[in-house]
Amino acid sequence: MKRLFVTLALLALAPAVAAQDSYQNRLFTINAPASSGDYANSQPVLMSLPYDQGFAPNVNVQVQVYQGSMEAYVQLSEEQFRALNWKLIKKGVTENKALFEYAGEYNGRAMHWYTEAIRRGDRVYLITATTLEAQWSSYGSRLIASVQSFRLRQ
Description:
- The protein is α+β, with helices and mostly antiparallel strands and 154 residues long.
- The two termini are 37 Å apart.
- A 6-stranded antiparallel β-sheet has the order 3-4-8-7-6-5, with helices on both faces. It has a two-stranded antiparallel sheet with strand order 1-2.
- It is globular and about 40 Å long.
- The longest helix has 17 residues, at 2-18.
- Helices cover 29% and strands 39% of the residues.
């Protein structure tokens, strides 16, 4: 009976191990650190291009716990942009999705961002491309394509 219990306990753990996240490209594969799967208030993904002008253009995904409407989320974001004196270049909003393109100074450097925020339940998935302003013309379209490729499962 004890052996059956241990076997069942191990089988119960098997799906968690089998479902581990991984990343692969043409050079390598790597498994993500083990997680409970609840990425609330975290940044589970950061993908960078090679350094150029002392900065690596990148795309990241943040998972934010958020109870409000997408309209309220957009209003809060715009207030933050104004407080930081960042220029809102482009904005689009639907019931569960918002996009922003904006630029401004951060840590003494002129920056450019493109962000899509997707709301599902009490989570907002914030997918953001970041470059130096001087890099945007070289990398912006590739980074936007990466952001726009984001899909939620389930």
